[in-house]
Design a protein that fits this description.
18-stranded mixed β-sheet, two-stranded antiparallel ribbon
């Protein structure tokens, strides 16, 4: 009988703690020193956030999956207040705008942006918030517009520009972010 009573009171205490979780509108929070607080409070906020942005906070830091609402604007996962994992933002028409991977609040991995038509606009790989590898930019018709090589956030290598009819019209050689034109197509 004592064990049943203990289980009942444990369940009751858990239920009250869940029910007691504070819920606030995102517009009532302010950010100070990287943490979120309710207005006129000195203790960082812990609880659920609703309104323009939705998610959960622990000790003033975003935690878990977050969304920008009204119409879905963005979606991100947070661990200890830092973006971790897949981040997505959306155009007003609901189509994907940006897809990026984060680790510890820094872009790490493939970054892609899209036109509001859904066609790929740009893609590049990031390491520690810096472009690394080949960056490709596209016209809305899907044809390659520009191709460049990056290392540690600086252009390094050949950069090529193409017209909408896929003709190469400019070419640069870049070293540590400094580019020099090496080809230009002259049209009469």
């Amino acid at each position: 009988m004592l064990a049943k009573s203990a289980v009942f009171f444990l369940f009751l205490g858990f239920s009250f703690s869940v029910l007691a979780e504070e819920i606030v509108d995102s517009n009532t929070l302010i950010k100070r020193d990287g943490l979120y607080f309710k207005k006129n409070f000195s203790k960082p906020f812990t609880g659920k956030v609703i309104g323009t942005f939705r998610g959960k906070m622990i000790d003033g830091k975003r935690e878990g999956l977050w969304f920008g609402f009204g119409q879905l604007q963005w979606q991100a996962n947070y661990v200890d207040g830092k973006k971790n994992g897949l981040y997505k933002s959306f155009h007003a028409n609901g189509k994907l705008n940006v897809r990026a991977l984060y680790f510890e609040d820094k872009m790490n991995g493939l970054y892609e942006s899209y036109y509001n038509s859904g066609i790929l606009r740009r893609k590049v790989n990031f390491i520690e918030n810096k472009e690394n590898g080949i960056l490709e930019s596209y016209y809305e018709n899907g044809f390659l517009k520009m191709k460049a090589h990056y290392k540690d956030g600086l252009q390094n290598g050949i950069e090529e520009w193409y017209s909408k009819d896929r003709t190469l019209y400019l070419k640069f050689l870049c070293t540590k972010g400094v580019c020099e034109k090496i080809h230009e197509k002259v049209t009469l």
